[in-house]
Write a structure and sequence with these properties.
Strand content: 25-35%
Protein name: C2 domain-containing protein
Number of strands: 59
Keywords: Cell membrane, Cytoplasmic vesicle, Membrane, Repeat, Signal-anchor, Transmembrane, Transmembrane helix
Family: Belongs to the ferlin family.
Radius of gyration: 39 Å
Mean pLDDT: 78
Largest sheet: 10 strands, antiparallel
Oligomer: single chain
GO biological process, one term: membrane fusion
Main location: membrane
């Protein structure tokens, strides 16, 4: 009852925290919240961007009213779009009276959502949500504890919602129809099943299909529904409808679908998770309407609809292991999944509930008519995927037997038993060391091609439209970047205008193109038609606005922001929610373990027969892919390590279009059929023939089983291929190889040491050291020596005791104990390559103990089998083009002899994959390329060592070569000034190289004391191609931005050029060498032009120094570096007595670049001089932009001879001066009072009130005509005429340590006071230098000063006492004095 409220006037404070907003209508908006409270108070938040902004701002309102009055005050929240004109900027508003808040428990609403509506909108539909905390604090009230209910995405929104009267949230139901799933991986171990089969209880057949018990769960806004469990199948058909009630429009923006595997014991395992954002599958009808769209194109919105369509699930690799691995988190939607894990057919329908209707049951079966209708979405087409590998380089570790696998969905998965064989993996090979840091695959003229045939439903019309829009976006981004460059270098206005016009022309042309129409396609559904309509309307709107802009625009900035606006709107409609073609995944496999992967979206390499602009951007074009380590941990270091980099060409198209497949490459596609001749060793007879088999030795493959498929002809006869034998020689690519061996000895306890055995480096036993022969073309450099650089005693021995080998690994220790029974030492010997061309043995046999074990080249005692490989080459016949590779499925005809195999067929249930022929693209000629990388300098690199520095070195990688620069010690702004020259043998198509040249990759590492490299970031740049002998350009140095995972890591100034060596072309002259270390420098013409420059420093002192390593900073000195020159100041003896330097002025001459772009940063470091000569850096500040300190050289003598007292800095060429006339004018002037007015009527307060305009308090001061004071509304530092309280010296904040993450600042370490000036000197040294800049500087000694502070009054303090007031007083601290 409000009549009983007190009418006593009290102080109230209302605190309001605006937290965030969600689901605001409109696209590309910049929302801002305006809060009106009571009669005349209004406050406004900062501007944010996007439709889900976060503010977290606290606003306070103070009232001096009675509670009864306060109850009727109204709070109005208005959310505006700051982009538009003020009239139509309102997005939505909400009104709330203070009484409602005061009636709540604790007089507060904590973390409530407000539903925003537009009062002018007749339908009263919701416009978005705003989250706030608001409380009314009277006398002695405590504000509520806000931290208790922390934010979660799943906090119950509908329970926390305040809706305005009349705004209706409609009740609705999501109906998710789940039809079925396929391709699910094995999730349970098959031990129990195979037991049953062995006893004969279980049914025959392949059991891996049945080892999963799937069900699907559907989660939205914290509510959950799930289907029934179908046991033992990897292709479940659920055919269920799940109904989930909700209030619409809802707050939550994502539907989460998870397929799980039911387990009898323990928890259910997730198989995969997919999240569908609601905003992508529904529309409020306001997205496409930009600022000026006419009503003709108004879009009608639609509630969320989806499907019927397949949804692909991604997660950890499919291979089943009984022990879970760390990647299982990928299956619950954390991180990016690295492998395909199946797909489900679903459909989502939203129905608005009628009043009083019966709620739908949580789950019910789908009726049969609906199931029959969905069959048409299941229709499959054959797709062909072809991937050609050009190179694989930057392989970090020397892994053995690396192969690359390409798969789309389950097709092409090497370890999957259900899908037929495909040529989806490259030949296993060992990588070759590139001499510096990485390894690469030695595919020289024969590059592997992989081919995978798969079957998917035809949804190409969705992807064509998506490709069309994405290509437009990509072109626009490129042109916008170019435009921004022009604006940045302040180019000619006409040039900027013409660039803008060309972007608009392109946009008008692209948006008037016809999008592929989903109507009439078999797989199209309602969402396709809705999205199509939305895209058409966006296209029409953008097209009209662009035409209008092109005719009427005058301001460049306005046009640029409009173009960016178009780009955002195009990106909004480019998204395709129903992309059911799985991604293409490339895996690097080593020794049958999956190491690293890359996911390529299928639409990027999709081919379209209809129009070239529908093709994906990488279709049949070479592109560079960087592989990633699979990891579910968001902070893992694996995010910035590169396991390998591939260069591939890919093509994906329907089998119907396969005749138009073309790589546009000069190489010839050729195919090798291969079979292995095997022999067995029998004790008496020696080797006897054992027929021809495939590489596993299990399927017989006589040479006669091969026949040429249509379109192919044999090229030559069968010949022995010894390439496989070379694979196992890991020393390829190294010129010096260290061979090692181990000598073992044993003894009985208390006995003497006796020789036991000698093994080679792989711990295989050998008779004696001389049996370690070396390959032809190598020779020993020295004799066998004992390696004593290990953990061993002085003779190189390590010891072990008998009971140490419990874990299988023998533990070796360095000390001989009485119970040690064996010891070993390592022997090493270097061999060096003298002739690389010596051919390997022609016989090509490889040996092994059994067919299943690993083969090696050198024969050993225990080998019982040997094999060698025969290959025969096929080439395409004249008539057929490259598309003939699709006929290879029929090249091997194998007739199994049934009678022989029948008894063994029961035992092995495995159906062997018939090996497919290997496809290569062969390049006849090799071109010689020469890359020059000019690495000049770096700036602002990440500090990696504890002393805030790094020792950076740059690795430059291009194709399969890597070179490195010298290490620059102890700096974050290194000047390498070095040219790296790399000669490359390039096998491949030069036209491809010219059109899509790969980037040159630069990686910066920090070299540790131990010599290991720590990663600091990577960047890449395009080389300047010089393929035509006529043209001759000079590359320009550019600043490249270094990134480390997602944090910025500074810049590096570099340029690259790639020259094609030919007889017609003279190579550019080699650059000059640095005198002392013989390293080529960056040549003239490319390196920055230098000139003589003078720098004057005024180093005043340091303040606020924080303690370093627990000791306070006592005697600091300052080190200032610019480029390669540096200045050290004298040491301050005691910081506590005088924090200033005795000699403040320093002068320096250096050769510095003319061009601002290349000007080196200025680094200010403060060092503390401690006992025992330690000088740690306790803080540093880096100034990258030094233009503001540059001045013209001072004019001649005559102008600036001033008398001493006028100023201590020459006035004629300075921005500021401190003149002494100021002292005559104190801040508050008191005139002589005129005698008419009595003294007691007027005091200082009346003058004050008169000045701020409260004449009621001022008495008759105003009439007296006395002068007024100027009262500023904010701090004096912010007023223009006080120059931010800066004197002639600037204050620089010092930092220390390394910044770990992107957004956190390094630790504050103190302040440095000083300034400097830079000006050019005459080139000729004989001319007199201009006079010095800092003249007559006042002494830096301590001066006694008196500081007066007038404390006048305070406003809006928070009440503290129980009576609603407070008893405030101030503490003032200056230096060490406190008041």
């Amino acid at each position: 009852d409000r009549s009983t409220l007190s009418e006593k006037v009290e102080d109230f404070q209302i605190r309001l925290k605006v937290i965030c907003a969600r689901q605001l209508t409109g696209s590309n908006i910049k929302p801002v919240v305006k809060v009106k409270a009571g009669k005349n108070q209004a406050k406004i938040t900062r501007i944010r961007k996007g439709s889900a902004p976060i503010w977290n701002e606290l606003l306070m309102f103070n009232f001096n009213e009675s509670l009864k009055e306060l109850y009727d005050y109204v709070f109005e929240f208005a959310l505006n779009n700051s982009r538009k004109l003020r009239s139509d900027a309102l997005i939505g508003s909400f009104k709330l009276d203070v009484g409602t808040i005061y009636d709540q428990p604790g007089h507060a609403f904590v973390r409530k959502w407000l539903l925003l509506t537009d009062p002018d909108d007749a339908s009263n539909s919701p416009k978005g949500y705003l989250k706030i905390t608001v409380c009314v604090l009277g006398a002695g009230d405590q504000p509520p504890d806000e931290s208790a209910g922390k934010d979660d995405d799943n906090d119950d929104v509908e329970g926390n919602l305040l809706t305005p009267a009349g705004a209706s949230l409609r009740a609705a139901t999501f109906t998710l129809r789940v039809y079925g799933a396929e391709d699910l991986p094995q999730m349970d171990s098959g031990s129990l099943k195979s037991m049953k089969q062995r006893i004969g209880l279980g049914e025959e057949g392949d059991i891996t299909k049945t080892l999963v018990d799937p069900f699907l769960s559907f989660i939205f806004a914290g509510k959950k529904r799930k289907t029934q469990i179908i046991k033992e199948t990897n292709q479940p058909e659920w055919n269920e409808e799940l109904n989930l009630p909700l209030k619409f429009p809802s707050m939550c923006d994502s539907i989460k679908l998870t397929i799980k595997d039911w387990d009898r014991i323990g928890s259910d395992d997730p198989i995969g998770t997919v999240i569908i954002p609601l905003s992508r599958i529904s529309s409020t009808g306001e997205e496409a309407n930009g600022a000026g769209t006419s009503l003709l194109h108004a879009v009608d919105g639609f509630p969320p609809t989806f499907g019927p369509s397949f949804v692909n699930f991604y997660g950890s690799p499919r291979e089943f292991s009984k022990l879970g691995d760390s990647l299982d988190d990928l299956n619950i939607g954390k991180g990016i999944g690295c492998a395909y894990r199946g797909r489900a057919m679903v459909e989502l329908v939203t129905t608005m509930d009628e009043e009083g209707a019966e709620p739908a049951p949580p789950s019910q079966p789908i009726n049969d008519d609906q199931i029959a209708l969905v069959k048409k979405y299941m229709r499959r087409r054959r797709y062909r995927l072809v991937v050609g590998f050009e190179s694989a380089n930057m392989i970090r570790k020397p892994l053995e037997r690396i192969e690359f696998e390409v798969s789309i969905g389950n097709y092409g998965n090497k370890f999957d038993t259900e899908v037929g064989a495909a040529s989806s993996t490259t030949e296993p090979g060992n990588p070759v060391f590139d001499g510096v840091n990485y390894h690469y695959m030695a595919w020289t003229s024969k590059k592997p091609i992989l081919m995978v045939t798969s079957q998917w439903e035809d949804i190409s019309f969705r992807l064509y439209a998506m490709n069309l829009i994405l290509r437009t976006c990509e072109r626009m981004e490129g042109q916008i970047n170019h435009l921004n460059e022009l604006v940045k270098v302040e180019a000619d206005e006409i040039e900027i205008a013409s660039e803008i016009v060309s972007i608009l022309d392109m946009l008008i042309l692209e948006t008037s193109k016809k999008l592929p129409d989903p109507r009439g396609r078999t797989a199209s559904n309602q969402l396709d038609r809705r999205i199509h309509r939305q895209r058409l309307q966006t296209f029409v709107a953008i097209c009209e606005e662009a035409k209008d802009l092109r005719q009427n625009c005058t301001d460049a900035q306005e046009a640029i922001s409009a173009i960016n606006d178009f780009l955002e709107r195009l990106k909004l409609v480019s998204y395709e929610p129903q992309n059911s073609l799985p991604d293409v995944v490339v895996w690097m496999i080593s020794d049958n373990k999956r190491i690293a992967y890359a996911r390529i979206p299928a639409y990027e390499i999709l081919y379209s027969p209809e129009k070239p602009e529908f093709c994906g951007r990488y279709c049949a074009k070479p592109c560079t892919i960087t592989l990633k380590y699979p990891t579910a941990n968001a902070k893992s270091k694996k995010h910035y390590k590169v396991p390998a980099q591939l260069r591939i060409i890919a093509w994906l198209g329907r089998a119907a279009d396969q005749d138009s497949f073309e790589f546009h490459s000069r190489g010839q596609i050729s195919v090798y059929a291969d079979t292995f001749e095997t022999e067995m060793k029998i004790l008496v007879k020696g080797w006897i023939a054992d027929g021809y088999t495939d590489i596993t030795g299990e399927i017989p493959l006589p040479k006669s089983a091969f026949s040429c498929p249509p379109g192919w002809v044999w090229d030559g006869d069968w010949k022995i291929n010894s390439e496989l034998a070379l694979l196992y020689d890991t020393s390829q690519g190294h010129m010096h190889v260290l061979e090692d061996a181990f000598e073992y000895q044993y003894r009985f306890p208390g006995g003497t040491w006796e020789p036991e055995k000698i093994t080679n480096g792989k711990h295989e036993e050998i008779p004696n050291l001389s049996s370690l022969r070396i390959p032809d073309g190598w020779e020993w450099e020295n004799e066998w020596t004992v390696d004593s650089n290990r953990a061993c005693d002085e003779d190189g021995w390590e010891y072990s005791a008998p009971d140490d080998d419990t874990a299988g690994e023998v533990a070796w220790s360095t000390i001989e104990k009485t119970y040690s029974t064996s010891r070993r030492r390592r022997l090493i010997r270097n061999r060096v390559c003298i002739d690389q061309k010596v051919s390997k043995k022609a016989e090509g046999w490889e040996y092994a103990t059994t067919m299943g074990s690993q083969f090696h080249i050198m024969p050993k005692m225990l080998d019982l089998v040997r094999r060698r490989r025969w290959v025969r080459k096929m080439i395409t016949s004249e008539a057929s083009g490259p598309a003939a590779i699709f006929n290879l499925d029929t090249s091997i005809k194998i007739t199994f002899d049934i009678s022989l195999k029948s008894n063994s067929a029961k035992k092995s249930k495995k159906i062997h994959k018939i090996p497919t022929p290997k496809i290569y693209i062969v390049y006849k000629d090799v071109s010689k390329l020469h890359l020059r990388a000019y690495i000049y300098q770096g700036r602002d690199l990440l500090p990696m060592d504890q002393d805030s520095f790094s020792d950076p070195v740059v690795m430059v990688s291009f194709l399969n070569q890597t070179h490195r620069t010298e290490v620059q010690q102890h700096t974050l702004n290194p000047v390498w000034d070095q040219t790296l020259m790399i000669d490359i043998q390039f096998y491949g198509d030069l036209e491809h190289l010219q059109r899509n040249c790969p980037d040159v990759l630069c990686e910066v590492f920090d070299k540790d004391d131990l010599g290991s490299l720590e990663f600091m970031g990577r960047t890449s740049g395009k080389p300047l191609l010089q393929f035509d002998p006529e043209e001759d350009e000079t590359p320009r140095l550019q600043w490249l931005n270094i990134r480390k995972a997602n944090q910025a890591g500074g810049n590096i100034l570099a340029a690259f050029e790639l020259i094609l060596k030919s007889d017609k072309r003279e190579m550019p002259i080699p650059p000059p060498l640095k005198p002392d270390i013989h390293v080529p420098m960056v040549p003239c013409g490319i390196r920055p032009v230098l000139q003589r420059t003078a720098i004057e420093f005024l180093v005043w002192g340091v303040r606020d120094m924080q303690s370093f390593q627990l000791l306070s900073v006592d005697s600091p000195s300052v080190l200032i570096q610019i480029g390669e020159v540096e200045i050290r100041t004298k040491i301050i003896k005691s910081l506590k007595k005088n924090p200033n330097f005795a000699e403040p002025i320093y002068y320096l001459e250096a050769n510095l670049p003319v061009d601002d772009l290349y000007f080196p940063p200025i680094v200010i470091r403060v060092k503390d001089n401690r006992k025992f000569g330690r000088r740690p850096t306790v803080g540093q500040h880096i100034i990258t932009n030094s233009i503001s300190y540059r001045i013209k050289p001072p004019p001649e003598e005559s102008h600036y001879c001033h008398t001493g007292n006028e100023s201590f800095i020459s006035l004629s060429w300075m921005h500021f001066s401190i003149s002494e006339d100021d002292e005559a004018t104190p801040l508050l002037k008191f005139h002589e009072y005129t005698k008419r007015i009595r003294e007691d009527e007027i005091d200082w307060w009346s003058k004050f009130y008169a000045s701020i305009g409260e004449s009621g308090m001022a008495g008759n001061y105003v009439e007296s005509g006395l002068d007024l004071i100027k009262v500023y509304t904010n701090e004096l530092e912010k007023q223009e005429n006080f120059k931010h309280f800066g004197d002639f010296i600037q204050t620089f904040r010092l930092f220390r340590g390394k910044g770990v993450l992107e957004d956190e600042e390094p630790d504050f370490a103190g302040q440095f006071k000083g300034t400097f000036r830079i000006y050019t000197l005459p080139e000729d040294k004989r001319e007199p230098n201009p006079p010095k800049f800092f003249q007559n500087v006042p002494p830096t000694d301590v001066v006694e000063v008196k500081v007066r502070i007038y404390v006048i009054r305070a406003f809006e303090l928070a009440p503290q006492d129980s009576n609603g007031l407070a008893d405030p007083y101030l503490k003032i601290k200056v230096g060490k004095k406190r008041i």
